[in-house]
Amino acid sequence: MRAMSLTEFGGPDAFALSEYETPKAGAGEVLVRVHATSINPLDYQVRRGDYPDLVPLPAITGHDVSGVVEAVGSGVSAFKPGDAVWYTPQIFGGHGSYAEYHVASEAIVGHKPAGLTHLEAASLSLVGGTVWEALFTRAGLRLGETVLVHGAAGGVGHVAVQAAKASGAFVVATASGYDADFVRSLGADVVIDYRTEDYVAVVNRETGGVGVDVVLDTIGGDTLERSPRVLAQLGRIVSIVDIPNPQNLIEAWGCNASYHFVFTRQNRGKLDELATLVDRGLLKPHVGAVYPLAGIPDAHALLERPRNGVRGKIGIAVVDENASSQP
């Protein structure tokens, strides 16, 4: 099989298109013909060497799979050859998804929603699982609550807006003015242009000084540090980014806030919950650009570029090398 191999830690040119032996499904595993994968910030963090002790080189990286079951190992009962599936490979647990085939434990694999293409499904598995864990498992977002989503036009953010709205929440979102209409189309009730408006002032104005129940932070830094200033009493802050600096815990303490830091875990249950939203027409991932397998270095370079203009996710069409719509 062909795969993009990470030969050294560094820039996007650290990848090389290589030939590998096609893996085989062991007991409790499925072998999947990968039709699509996608690019996440975690992918370029791994590539540049943020987790060197967890990623022995050379490595096949990548964290999203949508494809078709090729074969199943002994003991597998939920899937059979020909089934369309989607999942997030075990992070730091073997080969990733930048390849034509992938083997995974049956326990983390889900049946792909019929209403999604492979590119769309591969653009939802990791970010969707992250959103579900952040908003519902950790923050416990409930009907009628108010949530602030930072970075609402991005891969995680655009899914979070839709999932929060589907749960019956009032959604406030930050984005650039360029992305405002897109974010409103996802269901956001209030969109704040972070380039021209102070989100703390706008949130407090829109909520009559009460604040929001949940903040989902996809940005970090100053955005995370100022988030307690918009929290209601018993509010929850959920962040999916690293914390390089001490946080503003005095203001968080004043409103009895709780903090949650999420590094998503793989399981079929979250995929099934997301699939239900998709089937009900309440969730649709947006694929902002598509590259072939050999174009992964260019896709990485695009995602790392500040203000790259890409809404949603960057998809990788593994099966159809001609399916390319780079911006």
UniProtKB/TrEMBL annotation:
One of its GO terms (cellular component) is cytoplasm. CDD domains: MDR6 (cd08272). One of its GO terms (molecular function) is RNA binding. It is found in: Cytoplasm. SMART domains: PKS_ER. The keyword RNA-binding applies. Residues 10-316 form the Enoyl reductase (ER) domain. The keyword Calcium does not apply. Keywords: Cytoplasm, NADP, RNA-binding. InterPro entries: ADH-like_N, ER, GroES-like_sf, NAD(P)-bd_dom_sf, Quin_OxRdtase/zeta-crystal_CS, Zinc-ADH_QOR/CCCR. Homotetramer. This is Zinc-type alcohol dehydrogenase-like protein. It comes from Roseovarius mucosus.
